[in-house]
Design brief:
Elements lengths: L5 H8 L3 H15 L4 E4 L2 E4 L1 H25 L7 E6 L1 H4 L2 H12 L4 E6 L2 H9 L5 E5 L7 E16 L19 E5 L6 H10 L5 E6 L2 H9 L4 E5 H5 L6 E5 L4 E10 L6 H21 L3 E3 L13 E2 L1
Parallel strand pairs: 3-4, 3-5, 7-8, 7-9
Antiparallel strand pairs: 1-2, 5-11, 6-9, 6-10, 6-11, 6-12, 11-13
Helix pairs in contact: 1-2, 5-10
Length: about 300
């Protein structure tokens, strides 16, 4: 299918063209249907061939993954694999990995970036060692440890008329173009409710899926974003002002691990570097964030809340 002809496939495999033809004929006989139509010495893939190719690729990828596990078995203890959400992947994760590598330069990293829902799915399927995501998260096979508790903040251009205020309330945002996260975000309704309680309906001009993009849009002057303060802190850029939003709407970032598994040395070091980095970043920005050092259960922080 990839090479386009039996002769080209034979050259790639290092066998004769007649051997390729015999293998193909035997495979078609086993399947019970043809994979190619033959005309004037040319092979044309059938519709069934494309379906078989998709299945075959999956099999080959699985075999390749097993071979990779075998060759990497000796260094598995020096690899840290995890998943996080887009708004934490841009600023926070690279900074944490830099601190981690200064202590353990022998460790290699593999991290994926997904939505919270997809990150939880990856954990349930044991694709990664841990996840760092926003609550709520709940699954019987996972253990959730809250790490940070922050509040919503307002992100705007640094030259905006409101940039010098200590806190921003819905009343201050009357007549402003707004940037909100999509409706599937747990705190979206809480933010809208804060506007409605003040007697104002937000003029939403941009909706996006993550905080980093919302902050970039705010920096470009497309509107004012009301977003998770911790994630906004790691999306800070020149020309962007970030101020606390009132009423307070709380967000919790948590570590997600397999239930019943002892935390590895690598994960413990990652969490230590993570907390140190957040503490330093938010001291610099002067934004509120609570670092949760004492053990808590997920039930204590089940859903975002407002106050």
């Amino acid at each position: 299918m990839r090479s386009g002809s039996a002769s080209a496939a034979a050259r790639e495999l290092g066998i004769t063209q007649s051997a390729v033809s015999r293998i193909l004929a035997r495979f078609e006989a086993d399947l019970g249907f043809g994979l190619f139509s033959r005309s004037n010495g040319r092979l044309t893939a059938t519709r069934q061939a494309n379906a078989v190719l998709s299945q075959a690729r999956g099999i080959l990828e699985s075999v390749s993954a097993l071979e990779s596990m075998s060759t990497r078995a000796g260094v598995a203890h020096r690899e840290l694999t995890f998943v996080t959400v887009p708004s934490l992947s841009y600023g926070l994760v690279p900074s944490v990995l830099k601190a981690f590598s200064a202590i353990r330069p022998d460790v290699r990293f593999g991290f994926d970036v997904r939505t919270t829902e997809a990150a939880v799915d990856a954990m349930v399927r044991s694709e990664v060692e841990f996840a760092v995501v926003a609550l709520p998260v709940s699954h019987p096979t996972l253990h959730v440890t809250p790490l940070f508790r922050s509040t919503s903040c307002v992100a705007m251009r640094a030259d905006h008329r409101l940039a010098d205020k200590e806190t921003i309330a819905p009343e201050d945002l009357a007549g402003e173009k707004m940037i909100f996260l999509l409706n599937r975000q747990p705190t979206r309704q809480l933010i809208e409710d804060a506007f409605l309680r003040s007697g104002r309906e937000p003029d939403i001009r941009v909706e996006t899926s993550n905080v980093a993009t919302a902050c970039r849009c705010a920096a470009e002057g497309l509107g004012i974003a009301v977003v998770n303060g911790l994630m906004a802190g790691y999306s800070a850029m020149p020309g962007l002002a970030i101020k606390p939003f009132e009423p307070r709407i709380h967000h919790t970032i948590a570590l997600v691990e397999p239930a019943g598994r002892e935390r590895s040395e690598g994960v413990r070091l990652f969490v230590d570097c993570l907390k140190a980095d957040v503490r330093e970043r938010f001291d610099e920005l002067g934004l509120p964030v609570e670092i949760i050092d004492a053990p808590h259960s997920a039930a204590e922080y089940p859903l975002p809340e407002s106050s």
